[in-house]
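Dear support,

Our group has been running a series of protein-ligand predictions, and this particular one with FE2/S2 (inorganic) cluster is the one our PI (initials K.S.) wants archived with full inputs and outputs. We had some confusion internally about which version of the output was final, so please treat the block below as the authoritative record. The input we submitted was:
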Amino acid sequence: MSDRTLAPLGRRLCPVVAHARHGAYHVVSVLDEGPAPDAGQFYMLATSERWGGGVDERPFLPRAFSVLRRHEDGTLDFLLEDVGPGTRRLCELRAGDGLWLLGPLGRGFRAPEDDRRPLLVGGGVGIAPLAIWQDVLSDGRVLLGFRDAAHAEGAALLSDARVATDDGSVGFHGLVTELLREEVDDSCTVYACGPPPMLEAVRALCEAEDVPAQLALESGMACGYGACFGCVVPTRDGYVRLCVDGPVLAASDLEAVA
Ligand SMILES: Cc1cc2nc3c(=O)[nH]c(=O)nc-3n(C[C@H](O)[C@H](O)[C@H](O)COP(=O)(O)OP(=O)(O)OC[C@H]3O[C@@H](n4cnc5c(N)ncnc54)[C@H](O)[C@@H]3O)c2cc1C
Ligand code: FES
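Confirmed final output from the archive:
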């Protein structure tokens, strides 16, 4: 338990203090008086109004989000991509609105061992936990991959990132894992978050190069604190609940990222 931040029991209602656009992404900022999160931890979020009810009662359950950044006054930033009813409603939040927040939850990134050089690799909205991790680390190279120029605007949320885009509209034309192949060496620890095919490519490359890696995974989460078993993922030692044993897992614990 010592490496976990214990979240207060129950969710708390926090005021939204800002909403900003970064190309295809939204950043919603909320003033929180809870414990400071570790990089890689997440929160379950739900708006205080128009969440559930109505004709189909969606989105109904809270949704899981990595913390993008924590400011000194306790403001938390969340990076959102509108992919469905929950994220759409959260993207509508503006200063003065209320946000129910449960967290910080799960286990985040662990510091590199043996003075290894951190190499951060993000894909799409998966850049979120890498921003707060970069804030904590004093050094480290950052490689980010996006679909197109609108999504690549998210790269401005981190410092000095090398960017790849699928369509070549910004930076390197190709996959971020091609940049990783160029930059990885046996002095690194790799930290990655992104879509499953990207994480599987990172895992396989790091296994082949014998480089340690920590992967921030996603799975559908209904509760966020270990009660529903909706988030289980297979590891070499059997199934784990990603919300309490992750979302960051050592790549060496996984046969594959599915
Ligand atoms: C630990 C964790 C951290 C996350 N951090 C962020 C973040 O920082 N920013 C962000 O925008 N999103 C993040 N997500 C994903 C976010 O929780 C989902 O996008 C959200 O639940 C979708 O809800 P919805 O109602 O908008 O869409 P839904 O209708 O529920 O889903 C829309 C589409 O997204 C897929 N989907 C939904 N949830 C997930 C999931 N957890 N993993 C993979 N695919 C999913 C569905 O299959 C569907 O295709 C995170 C998820 C986890 C588990
Ligand atoms: S989300 Fe309920 S057990 Fe993990």
